[in-house]
Amino acid sequence: MTTLPADTATTIPFFPPDLFEDDRDLLLDVVRDVATDPAQRFILGERTTRFEELLRTDLGAEDVIACGSGTTALTLVLRATGVTTGDEVIVPAFGCAPLANTVLGVGATPVFADVDPHTLVIDPDAAEALVTPRTKALMPAHMFSVMADMPRLRALATRHGLRLIEDSAVAQGAVLDGRPAGTWGDAGVFSFVQVKSFGGPGEGGVVVTGDPELARTVRMLRNHGQDGVHRFRHHLIGLNSRFDEVLAAFQIRRHPGLARRLARRAEIAAHYTESFAPLAARGVLPPPPGTNGRCYYVYTLLAERRDDLRHHLAAHGVDSHVYYPQPLPHQPAFAHAAAPDGHWPHAERAARQCLSLPVYPHLTDAQVERITEAVLAFPA
Question: Record's Gene3D superfamilies (predicted)?
Answer without folding.
Answer: Aspartate Aminotransferase, domain 1 (3.90.1150.10), Type I PLP-dependent aspartate aminotransferase-like (Major domain) (3.40.640.10)
